[in-house]
Amino acid sequence: MIDVSLVREAIKQRKARSESFLGFEYLRFSDDYKDIPRGTAVFQDTIIWGYPHIGRIFMLEKGLKEHFKNPFWVEEKVDGYNVRIFKVRDRVIALSRGGYLCPFTTDRVGDFIDLKFFEENPDLILCAEVAGPDNPYIEESPPFIREDIKFFVFDVMKKNQQTFLKQEEKLSLLERYSLPGVEVFGRFTSGDTEKLKELLLKLNKEKREGVVFKEDSEENRRAKYITSYANLNDIKVTTKNMLQLPPEYYTNRILRLVLFMEEEGINRTEHLYEELGRAFIDGLFDAIEQFKKEHKVYRTFRCKFRNKDNAVALMELLHRTSKHIQVIERELKQEGEFWVLTFDKVFLNMTGLLGHLLSGGLVFD
Amino acid sequence: MIDVSLVREAIKQRKARSESFLGFEYLRFSDDYKDIPRGTAVFQDTIIWGYPHIGRIFMLEKGLKEHFKNPFWVEEKVDGYNVRIFKVRDRVIALSRGGYLCPFTTDRVGDFIDLKFFEENPDLILCAEVAGPDNPYIEESPPFIREDIKFFVFDVMKKNQQTFLKQEEKLSLLERYSLPGVEVFGRFTSGDTEKLKELLLKLNKEKREGVVFKEDSEENRRAKYITSYANLNDIKVTTKNMLQLPPEYYTNRILRLVLFMEEEGINRTEHLYEELGRAFIDGLFDAIEQFKKEHKVYRTFRCKFRNKDNAVALMELLHRTSKHIQVIERELKQEGEFWVLTFDKVFLNMTGLLGHLLSGGLVFD
């Protein structure tokens, strides 16, 4: 349990606040506070712990030797957004990493997850990545998901507990309820680096994001490792909105890219140089061209709902929580069994800067 | 004059401090404070005003129309470090942009500037760029300077005054004393953008940094404009020490590069993509290789002095003022008429991060 005085102090320091959304009242930790991770949510007497931070290793061989004394499972890391799905009262709902109740994920969970799981296991929480081109949050999508979204369960937690079920228990639950899981590449030891390097090279060629290592031990230590494809792609996808992200976003990814190449023995080819240059330059050209035509820099998102009210609620959530981004609804229309929502995210920082620069403005730096 | 109470307040707020170096005592403004620019120095009753910030335009045509109602001079902007040179008591000394008394520039000024200028004009200050491969401060050097350094005078100020001499007065002084000046491309109006675009394309091909515009009017408005070559080169030269600079350093330059290409009609070629990618990747590979061999990331600097004491004083200044950089002397030896100083700047942030990452360390981001 979280002590009441701790909650009061967190609220006072604006690290936690009460939320009221979709008929639920709960307390949300908007930042890490002492040992409580960001995204932790308290529904009456039930704590849904925030999904913990997982450290990143930049060097496979040394990193695995350094952190894993025991064998570990290697699972795919899918490039999407992280949710926790569980039952409260009589409803199955999904929280985002930051602890917001997500109307979109909540709306669609029944399309991908057998809800019998929650009826029979009301104390369990599924931790999943939601990825695909038709999601309302992130601009990238694994190329192997052609449309809509998919769910990829990677962990199971218990309510009120901060630990995860063991790998075997998780896998048997996934099997029993035919739940979609992330790909599990197997159980390895830190002596298996050659095999793992090969695996990562293969994932890199297949344009997949990377892997998570999960130690098969009581401590259940974890680490993640990302392909150079994913680092390049992160740059490419976000340059149109370069001012929104902390600039370290870019310098970190370039450094990771180089370390991946270094360890994997990938040669510096003209093609690779070109890809990095292109990742930066093309997005900015797009932003400039869009600004010249439409006087704003934006990206259009599209996602579909079973229930129209959830689409309206998503717009409300995005309006309320977007910083430096203006969210503009384009259309909400019925298509077959779905309500299809289309909206723009206008990148206000980039729009403002390009407006200033392209009209001949001065910058003091 | 600067009011005494203002000075007291600036000292209290740590925007100004007294300096004692090379036998001089003076007050140095280490930051902008109210209307007093950073680098302003007060020697007894003489104020040497800091060199003012010059705003940058990103779009030539629109920028010139926006800022210059009158004709303006166009001068080369040389890629070096900015100094102010003047006489105090019986000595000619040089202050850096930040207001430090520079033992290196002070030592060498007589090799490039006819000191009779200061005898006959004790109230004047020469503002110059010092550039070349053998300088102790910056890692880049215009490719047209093959060795040592050169001085490029671009402005003349009067002591105690914040304004500049008029262009004609400046040019006649440069001529009379045969002082080395920056190249003056002529007097233009904002209607001359086609000519200026051609000039900038030419400078870009010649690997020169850019130009400064100086309005031929009482207001003497100014602006600068940089070539894409210089933006690329800034990235290339500094990636080895990527963590030292604010990450906006990189995102700003990429944006400027793209806007330069856009306006100059430079096509996006594979070669250009490749150059940007290479600028980032090669410096980081160098840093990694150097770290693996020598357990530190550093760059070696070399510069030569007339007077050995000045070399010792420079080392003292660098030790005292370098942040996140360890300065290590390698050698100080006589070569003909000169004392040649060689020293390393060890980039502690990059050294620390690579040490952590290459040994398999975790990063939470």
Q: Would you kindly provide a written description of the structure presented here, covering whatever features stand out?
A:
2 copies of one chain form a homodimer. Chain A has 365 residues and is of the alpha+beta class. Helices cover 36% and strands 28% of the residues of chain A. Chain A has helices spanning 4-12, 60-67, 103-112, 116-120, 167-176, 193-205, 228-238, 248-264, 270-294, 308-321, 348-358; strands at 16-21, 24-29, 41-43, 46-48, 56-57, 72-77, 81-88, 91-96, 124-131, 150-158, 184-188, 210-215, 222-226, 298-305, 325-335, 338-347, 362-363. In chain A, helix 3 crosses helix 10 (308-321) and helix 7 packs parallel to helix 9 (270-294). The longest helix of chain A has 25 residues, at 270-294. The model of chain A has no long low-confidence stretch (mean pLDDT 94). Chains A and B meet through strand 5, helix 2, helix 8, helix 9 and helix 11 of A and strand 5, helix 2, helix 8, helix 9 and helix 11 of B.
Taking the sheet with the most strands of chain A, its summary is: 4 strands, antiparallel
**Radius of gyration of chain A, whole Å:** 22 Å
Tell me which protein chains meet in the greatest interface and how many residues each side has.
A-B, 55 and 55 residues
Report the principal-axis shape of chain A: globular
Give the neighbour order of strands across the main sheet of chain A: 1-2-3-4
**CA(first)-CA(last) distance of chain A:** 50 Å
Number of distinct beta strands of chain A: 17
| CATH topology assignment of the domain at 295-365 in chain A | Alpha-Beta Plaits
* Average residue pLDDT of chain A: 94
Counting copies of identical and different chains, the oligomeric state is: homodimer
Task: List the secondary-structure elements of chain A in sequence, H or E.
Answer: HEEEEEHEEEHHEEHEHEEHHHEHEEHE
So what's the CATH class of the domain at 295-365 in chain A? Alpha Beta
Poorly predicted regions of chain A: none
| DSSP helical segment count of chain A | 11
CATH-level-2 architecture of the domain at 295-365 in chain A: 2-Layer Sandwich
Question: What would you call the structural class of chain A?
Answer: alpha+beta
